Amino acid sequence: MNTGGLLAALVPLVDDLSRDLPEGERYRRLLQAMRAVLPCDAAALLQREGEWLLPLAVDGLSTDTLGRRFRIDDHPRFKALLEADGPLRFPPDCDLPDPYDGLVDGPPDVLEVHDCMGCVLMVGEQPWGLVTLDALDPERFATVDLPSVQAFASLAAATVTVADRIHSLASRVEDERQRAEVYRLAAGQQPPRDLIGNSPANQRLLQDIAVVADSDLTVLITGETGVGKELVAQAIHAASRRGGQPLISINCAALPETLVESELFGHVRGAFSGAVGDRRGKFELADGGTLFLDEVGELSLPIQAKLLRVLQNGQLQRLGSDREHRVNVRVIAATHRDLADDVQEGRFRADVFHRLSVFPVHVAPLRDRQRDVLMLAGFFLEENRVRLGLSGLRLTADAQAALLSYAWPGNVRELEHLLSRSVLKALARQGRRPRILSLSEVDIDLPRTGPVMAQEEETADTAAPAPVRAPAIDPSIGLRAAVDDYERRLILDALARHGHNWASAARGLGLDRANLNRLAKRLGIK
Predict the structure, then answer these.
(1) String of b and e for 116-143 (b: at least 16 CB within 10 Å)?
(2) 32-38 — which CB contacts under 8 Å span 24+ positions?
(3) Quick one: which H or E segment has residue 27?
(4) Residue of 127, 62, 124 lying closest to 393 (CA atoms)
(5) Between the CA atoms of 140, 141, 144 and 150, what dihedral angle is there, to the nearest 10 degrees?
(6) Given pLDDT bands bounded at 50, 70 and 90, which one contains residue 30?
(7) 344 vs 333, 351, 503, CA distance in Å?
(8) Per DSSP, which regions of 378-444 are E strands?
């Protein structure tokens, strides 16, 4: 390796130390410098968080790699790199599975990595993460000087250490570890998922969480079904001063009306048939911590009146008791409904609405989050790869394009379920179990969006007014604009058929009324 070339590549990195750069840009420059010096097809920077490795930046790898979470024990190459004293190159004929098989950008018929090396990054005498280099040519790294790689890795680690960002990253590692422990103790299950994505909409969401988390303000999370409102509530709680206390959740839409009051406020023995003893409600269980009221818009008006008292002064009465109980609970609520409209129509109390929406947080639908869909797809594919024991699981280019062009009426939840089904179906179609499973557009078999299907299946009402038709779509305006134009046509047609009754039009389109209202506002109809 040419020493002058190494120094020339590192000088800009040293110069960057005095500049205020975004975290992602700093890491991108680091990988670009590595690829300028070392002959590789792909490079990646991964940070260790407990038993996982999280990709922070990639160059030459598929975009969905950024959404993947690699469990160290599941990837012997990563484990070996972390345990090595310095740079390590694996023999080209090494039979250990490579975590990047099928992910390196290259010819579509070349899926397996043939030459692989990497080095641990030490920060504060601790293994902070890994830098990995991969090539599709089996002998690409045959002439690479390992001591030079060690020198580069040491300087790269120094760059990361000196950067202002490293302090916040180290704090984040500890915060996430504590957060995961709280969730495991409280829920007895796996840690919650991260809020994955680099889109402006997701960055705004993360900023809102950072602003409100450390306060005790009541938060109202809004967004369509399936966008991940519960994950947002978990993130707010975990980043707050109450993060070490319980997060208690209740789905207000899943409880019968007769049980809601008892579930929220508790009851005493004999309060109703079957009440054989005293029972604390969710508010008391969450004392000192946070109560998450999911689908709060489904609560009845009488329950809302009792909820108001707790929100105002922290006082409650168990069902069947005259005794006052005082609780110290932070409330986070979520709904897919437009509560402002519900207030106007008398379905929701205005005083409760204003108490809940002290700090509103909106979670954008997946269709407005740009290429986040590929990062999320990578996360779900890695989960399925581990669950099914596959060596590699990848998306072809046409599959990625299909995911990006779909409207995702069911949002992140729909993406997760669709990929799980697609992997199983694709695997079942294989003659024998493959080492690397590639999902194509045919395997994914995306359904058509809900409004389109509903419009086609709905029978015409001969007594309805003639539909208001928009002009034919101009194909030169682009995919997103064309989709918006077509959705606008469908809504106008439905309104015309249903006498401009929004509730009836929503039912005809197979949509929740609140979702139709939001869509109509976005499209400029309402």
Answers:
(1) bbbbbbebeeeebbbbbbbbbeeebbee
(2) 32/59, 33/9, 34/9, 34/131, 34/133, 34/152, 34/156, 35/59, 35/60, 36/5, 36/9, 37/1, 37/5, 37/6, 37/9, 37/152, 38/1, 38/133, 38/141, 38/144, 38/149, 38/152
(3) helix 23-37
(4) 62
(5) 140
(6) confident
(7) 20, 12, 15
(8) 392-395, 436-439
Residues 331, 346: Cα–Cα separation, whole Å:
23
Tell me, letter by letter, the H, E, C secondary structure of 467-504.
CCCCCCCCHHHCHHHHHHHHHHHHHHHHHHHCCCCHHH
Beta bridge partners of 49: 52
- Tell me the CA distances in angstroms from 113 to 54, 55, 73, 96, one per residue in order: 20, 18, 20, 11
DSSP 44-113: EEEEEETTEEEEEEEESB-GGGGG--EEGGG-HHHHHHHHSSS-EEE-TT--SPPTTTTTBSS-TT--S-
Q: How far apart are CA 129 and CA 78, in angstroms?
A: 10
From 244, 177, 226, 142, select the one nearest 416 (Cα to Cα): 226
Position 57: which residue type? Answer: A
pLDDT tens across 460-502, in order? 343 444 444 444 555 555 666 777 778 888 888 888 777 777 8
Q: Token digits for 382?
A: 């890695």
CA distance 370 to 358: 29
> What own/partner pairs with CB < 8 Å and gap ≥ 24 does 353-357 have?
355/218, 355/308, 355/311, 355/312, 356/218, 356/220, 356/296, 356/311, 356/331, 357/218, 357/220
Q: At what angle do helices 502-509 and 513-522 cross, to 10 degrees?
A: 100
pTM for this predicted structure: 0.72
Looking up tokens 């390992």, which residue turns up? 146
Segment 320-344, tens digit of pLDDT: 877 788 889 999 999 999 999 999 9
Task: Name residues whose C-beta falls within 8 Å of residue 90's C-beta, 6 or more positions apart in sequence.
Answer: 77, 80, 96, 115, 116, 117
Q: How far apart are CA 175 and CA 507, in angstroms?
A: 45
